[in-house]
Amino acid sequence: MALRSSAQKVSRSLPRLMAQAGAARGMATEKQIWNQIQSTKNIRKITSSMKMVSAAKLKGDENRLKLAKPFNQFTDALCGEAVHLEDLKKITYEDLPQKTLIVPFSSDKGLCGGINTYITRSVRDAIAKIEAQGKECDIVIIGDKGRAQMGRMFPEKIIRSATEVISPGSFNLAAALSSELTAAGAADYDAVMIVYNSFVNAATYNQYYKIVKPMVVEGENESMVEYEFEPDVKSEVMTDLYEYALSSQIYYSFMDGAASEQSSRMTAMENASRNAGEMIESLTLKYNRARQSRITTELIEIISGAAALEDK
User: Fold this and answer.
1) Of 157, 152, 148, 169, which is closest to residue 102 (Cα–Cα)?
2) Rounded CA separation 306/302 (Å)
């Protein structure tokens, strides 16, 4: 009778001991799984809200970009068209002069996909090919995320950075950024290479670079401008034209990059919301299994206790 009583006690306590052992091994308990489900639901609410906010901002950025395109067309005639960075291996940058100032446009905020990573890779490839030709280059970064990434790769080439840029931008902002480049010594370089993201649609954006060279007043490489100037003002007018073209291209790059950032963030938040939904489904399944296991354990304990009372 004593042996049977001991066996009954062991049988009653065995499920509880197994549950404690499972928790001790690091298995998530029912309460922990429930907390994970609630936190994931809260994250999904945030990502869904961010997607809607980005979609609303994208409309305004698209309108500003449409207005900026015809405004910046004159720079194509003066400086040449922008070059697509779709296949970096085919680009040799042989047309770049001896000393180039690279100006990559990145974002100040994260959670926007790979727009900053693509710009960083493009700049890294450009620097490698420029230095392979025995030429020099420095960097002035627009945006905090680009500064963080490129600061780890080539900090010795970064001479200045502009962060916390106000959005939505304006031409006054572009002129201020142009003044930053001038203060960084842009006039001392043979060309300014602007690298930026170009908006295509809500799901697509590409990377481009554009070369803006100073206007040559005289000599064999004199800039072709279909106007006649007084000899004493030509140099001043050409300098002002170069600064205006640089400001115009910066304004367009900023508008293009802003639209690309919002479209990329909208896509990233949509993917995050979908992934959160899948995780909630998976955690709910685990929670139901843990709950079923707990109920089964309690039933076993009740039945074992009832059986022990019957034996008495």
Assistant:
1) 157
2) 6
- Domain assignment present for 261: yes
**SS3 of 154-182:** CHHHEEEEECCCCCCCCHHHHHHHHHHHH
Strands 136-142 and 99-104: parallel
In a domain, 57, yes or no: no
Whether 61 is in a domain gets the answer: no
Residues 181 and 214 in one domain: yes
Containing structural domain, residue 15: 2-49+269-311
pTM for the model stands at 0.79
- Render each residue's pLDDT in the chain as its tens digit; 312 residues: 443 444 444 445 544 545 554 444 445 688 889 999 999 999 999 999 999 999 999 999 999 999 889 988 888 888 888 888 876 667 777 777 888 999 999 998 888 888 999 999 989 988 988 888 889 899 999 989 988 899 889 889 998 888 888 777 788 888 888 887 777 677 778 889 999 999 988 888 999 999 888 776 555 555 555 556 565 666 777 777 888 888 999 999 999 999 999 999 999 999 999 999 999 999 999 999 888 888 888 888 888 888 877 776
Whether 45 and 147 share a structural domain: no
Tally of domains within the chain: 2
Residues 210 and 123 in one domain: yes
Report whether 158 contacts 141 (CB < 8 A): yes
